[in-house]
Structures are given as structure tokens and as C-alpha cells.
Amino acid sequence: MPDASPSSPSAGAVLSTSTLRVRADLYDEGYSDQQYEEMMKLYEGTLQSIAEGEIVKSKVLRVTETHVILDVGFKSEGAISIDEFKDPGSIKAGDEVEVFLEHLEDQEGAVVLSKKKADFMRVWERIRQAHESDQAVDGTLVKKIKGGVVVDLMGVDAFLPGSQIALRRVPNIDDLLGESYQFKIIKLNKRRRNIVVSRRVILEAERATKRGHVMKELEVGQVRKGVVKNITDFGAFIDLGGVDGLLHITDMSYGRVSHPSEVVAIGQEIEVKVLDIDWERERISLGRKQLQQYPWEKVAEKYPVGARVQGKIVSITNYGAFVELEPGIEGLVHISEMSWTRNVRHPSKLVSIGETIEAVVLKVDPAEEKISLGMKQTEQDPWMMLPLKYPVGTRISGKVRNLTSFGAFVEIEPGIDGLIHISDMSWTKRVQHPSEVVKKGDGVDVVILNIDADNKRISLGLKQAIEDPWLKIGETYPVGTEMRGKVVRFMDNGVVVDIGNDIEGFVPQSQLGLPENQPEPNVLKEGQAAELKVIEVDPIHRRIVLAATGYPKEEEPVPAAEPTA
Fold first, then answer.
1. How far is it between the farthest Cα atoms of the chain?
2. Less Cβ crowding at N or C end of the chain, within 10 Å?
């Protein structure tokens, strides 16, 4: 009787643990050797001739929420995670599936199977051949992962890095999921089942081919269609079919363009004109406005001098505001042409960007592409009406707005100022500075002395608003009148004294009553009190001459100077 113990292999074959277990069970039941051999043949006849590391056919027995249970023709069943199937919902009992046999039995006696490995093994040879021959393969983008996208390549997963998706960065990869493209296999590792693919390689090759054709065809002056690839602050790059050209912001439109995105959008197909080609520096300059009608061609006919126009403020500078009359045509309102009456320090005080204004055409220069506009010309010049409104001699009230060394400016109407010259501030007093008479903000009564409408000047008189005291000076201060006054300033030939009522008199040096050879500054000082007597009155020359009769001591009170006779 042959040795049929569980530990003895038959015919030199390595028996599985399950087969050995069956043999041991039959042996223990006491079957004869002939019966034992016949029973083993029946059992082993039900098993497939399978080996580890091979692809085998299996039948789906049932599908659970997490696994697919398979029969591979072995004693025990096999289970594969449902995640390994591309379309788990389509798997049903009775389906035939090819799987990879990793182990006949694990520690629990179950067959270890893999669907992914079977899929990989089936297509590996085709993938390897495509890689070695540098052939393109079809694939579908199925899932976004860190660093790139998973691509379904012949039923197996391949990795598409983000940098290899397209020629430039893709804004939203999710928009590409489900799309099918051709790819080149750029890296393989069978042991790790790692496949890396690239779409960019194919696109670059296509671009290089197109570039060669375009370079032969492209000429200055051509009008071609292109697609906007990228937008920057200074322009847009246009793909002409393998070759990129720059459409500068200044060549996009005859109108004002703040940013290229106002005119074009990425992906938009546009017509452009080739302006310049520099193959050495690989630069192509394109233009779009060159395909439009030149707006300044008949501008003088469209906007004649004197015409009243409307436009939108598009830019403001220190010297004026630019007004867009139509796309490509702008005019300048100089700061001096904004108001008849207001002293405009900056145009932004009167206008703002985006505001629509009315103006009058003052000058047109088509050659220089310049139009001068005026805002104030839309209204009547108030200065032209002033001579009629305020005849010379008119008495009016105003407010002191500003003081200078030579006079004071008084506002007589909003935006219209007149000047009171220092010589027209007092009949009797010699005014050194306007602040001696008026202060900023004071309300004053003045008389119109002169209006120069052409030069925008008004002369005002403050002293003319009151009666000239010199007309009655002889009656108020007859010759011989005695009074007190005080020294206000020294002159070469005498001293000026204040005798009150804003009247100044003159004491000649010969009438000072000082010791001989004693200059008056050595004896007298400003503010020095003096006893005086009128010796001459000259109303025509507005002069009163006095003689000093004495100089009171400093401790003696000095009464206000009043006529004593």
C-alpha cells in the first residue's frame, strides 16, 4: 500500500494545505486505498489548475456593501474590495471577472485576489510598448488628487501631474474631469504599478509644428485671427497658432483703456494686425485699433470751434481735466477755462472722474490730436456786465478776503474781488500797511473807482466812502490853533506828528524849537508828546504845517490832541 499520509506529496507536486486536509480526513474515515484514490480524483477534478501570480477567471457569487465574493474554482471563495471595480454598481451575481491570484490561501485559508492587479497586468504590455515607441494613448480624466489628476488609461489608473495638463496653468481642473485626451507616457514602474502621463508634451509638439508653419506665413501688415492666452497690466498675449504676439494696451483701441481686461478676455478669438516682427528676440507686435477707423480724420468738421459739446471726465491733472467726447477723442479743459470768477486751485474742486459736463470747443489741432475746451464759456461772463451793474462812483458793501502789502481785496460778489489800494484807504493818514485800517473778514463800505472787465480788475476806494475832511480842514484848524500831538516818524527835513482824528501834520526842522546842532532823533523819539501851533493850512495839497512850542515831561499825562482855539 502506498504511503498516503497527509505529509506525503503525490507525483512530486506541491499540494495545497486544503488538499492535504481533505486527504487526511479521508484517511481517518478508514477508506481502502482504492476508495481513497478514487475519492481524491473526484475532489481534485473540481479544482482548476491555477497557480499564484497568474490571471484567472472567476464568477461573481454575491455582492456586499464592501466586497465582491468570487469563485475561482478553488475550495475556498475569494473576496475583493468593491473599491477595486471601476463601476461597482454594474457588478452582479453570475458575472465573469478576471482577477489576479496573489495567494492561494491566507492565514485564514481564503484565496487572496486583486482586480486592480489583473487590470494592470492585462494592459501593461500595451502600455510598455506605447512608452518605448513614444506613441500617444487615449485616456480620460477621472479624479482630482493632490498634485494632479487620475487618468483612466486602458482601464488602469495613471497619474497626470498638474504641470503636464496643459501649456499653461489651468484655472479650474474640475472643469476638465470626464474629458478624454491623448497622452504620452513619460514614466513607468511595473513593480510599483506607477504610470505617469503628460498631455503637455503632445501640445508642445503640436505647437512646434504650427509655429513652423506660422513663421513661414507671418508678415508685417497681415490681419490674422488669434486667441487671447494671457492678460497683463500692459497688454494681452495672443496665440496666432503656435506663435504668441503682444497686443499692447496702447494698440487696443483709439479710446482710453484703463486695463486690457476692459477690451479682451482670456479664450476670446479676435482679429489683429501684425505691426512688427523680431524673430531674433522672438517678439511680435500686434494691433487692434489699426483695424478701426481713425477717429481724428474729420474731427475739425465734427467739432468746430464754438460748438457746444458734452463729454465724460476721464482724467484729472493739476492743470486741467480730460473729457472724452467719443471713443478715441478727448479734449482738455484747462484749469483757467473752468470758471469766470472762482480761483480754482485744483480741477477736482469743480469736476470728478465719470461726471458728464458741457463745454465749448475753443481750439482743434488734428495733427497733434488735441482739442481745447472751455467750461466757463457755457455761461455768460459776469465781468462783461459789471460796468453796467456797478458804474463808477457806486457805493457798495463787501467783505475783506485778503490783505497784501499794497492793499486789501474785497469780495463784492461771489467769486468777484476788487482791490482797495493802500493809497485809497485814508484821506488824512499815511498808511504803512492795510492792517492798520482793516482786518481780514471785516465788512466795509467802498466806492467803485474803476472796472477793467478785459483784465478782470476792479479798483475800490475806502476813503471815498466818507467825506474828504480836507475840504473843511481850514475851518477845523485855522492858523494859530494850539493843540497837543505826538511824534509818529522822522523825516529828513522835519517830523510828522499825529494831531488826532486820523490827521497828521508836519513840523519843519526849523519849527521844532530844539537847541542848535542837536538832530531831532537825539532829543525826540517816536511817541514823544509835543505842544503845537498851526502855522499853515493847505487843503489842496492836503498839508497842515505846525510849530512845536514845547515838549511836556514824560510823567505828564498827554491828553488827546484837540484844537484849542
1. 181
2. N
